[in-house]
Amino acid sequence: MKAFSDLTQREILAVAIASEEEDSRIYISFADDLRERYPASAAVFDEMAEDESGHRRQLLEMYESRFGSKLPPIRREDVKGFLKRRPVWLTTNLALDTIRKEAEAMEFQAARFYQRAAAQTTDVDIRKLLSDLAEVEQTHEAHAQELGAAHLTESAREEEDKTQHRMFVLQYVQPGLAGLMDGSVSTLAPLFAAAFATLHNWPTFLVGLAASLGAGISMGFAEALSDDGSLTGRGSPWLRGGICGLMTALGGLGHTMPFLVPDTWPHAFWTATAIAGLVVFVELWAIAWVRARFMDTPFLHAVFQIVVGGVIVLGVGVLIGGS
Question: 147 and 102 in contact (C-beta within 8 Å)?
Fold first, then answer.
């Protein structure tokens, strides 16, 4: 992937053209999905789709006047830092609030892209066009925030500040949850394999400690290097990396600490193993709850993915260690 700072003016315009075309198609799909249920909101998305088409025409005219008719084969997916969108528009009968949140996120990202692109561009006319588009996208974001207001209860509107909640999820919940999932699940197999291979607490603790800290360092760097946050608004990469790494380590250490029970205690190994198993159960259910609460995942679906998957990984470790 190419760093945003390395993009030429030609590539910036090409990415913008491709982005506006895709966003227009997405808004059309939203409008078609809402037309029978919420015709007023569908009309808003039709208007937004037409606006995106108009932006594309403006950008294309500017590009052709500067660089000719041939566009380089680059899209926003090829640029480091763009937020990967969930393809919710491929699903029919979406809740209006779900569509509104997605549109709000799209416009927020588009506005940040144009602001950053304008600051990086030296051509006066191109910079003016990009700055103007940034202002337009900001008005669209506000428009997206208002969508469905008539269909939401007063209590729901009071409970949630939409933009703040979205950014909280992006900056803290997502990296923290990814780390907790990786630390809690990926360390189960080596920890319990070591436990049932040695039947002693101290060597098991050392294996769990090494696995937890190693996973925390690896996940922390992976998160920090995956996105610099300049376009997505996900905040400092090192803050996200720190959160992800810390939660990864904690996820593994949670079921490692019980093996500090001294081997001299009566039934020390089975006591530590029972406590670790209980900790694993609590960890997996907590992860499932967080996914259901913040990531719009149905709770039973989250339970199946996390709890069942974690139990399978734990079972693999027990089987390997006991063989």
Answer: no
Closest Cα to residue 192, out of 255, 267, 265, 278? 255
Domain positions in the chain are 4-158, 162-322
Q: How much is the pTM?
A: 0.53
Query: Is the distance from CB of 216 to CB of 183 less than 8 angstroms?
Result: yes
Which residue do the tokens 């269909």 mark?
A: 151
- Confidence band, pLDDT 50/70/90 cuts, at residue 141: low
Q: Look at residues 170, 195, 12, 2 and name the one whose alpha carbon lies nearest to residue 80.
A: 2
Mean pLDDT of 145-167: 53
Superfamily of domain 4-158: Ferritin, core subunit, four-helix bundle (1.20.1260.10)
Of how many residues is the chain composed? 323
**Span 82-107, pLDDT tens digits:** 656 667 666 667 777 778 878 888 88
What lies within 8 Å, CB to CB, of 161 at 6+ separation is none
Q: What is the pLDDT of residue 13?
A: 92
Burial of 142 (0-12, 13-18, 19+ CB in 10 A): exposed
Helix (H, G, I), strand (E, B) or coil at 323: coil
DSSP-derived letter for residue 152 is S
Per residue in 282-294, pLDDT tens?
888 888 888 877 7
Q: Which helix (H) or strand (E) holds 65?
A: helix 39-67
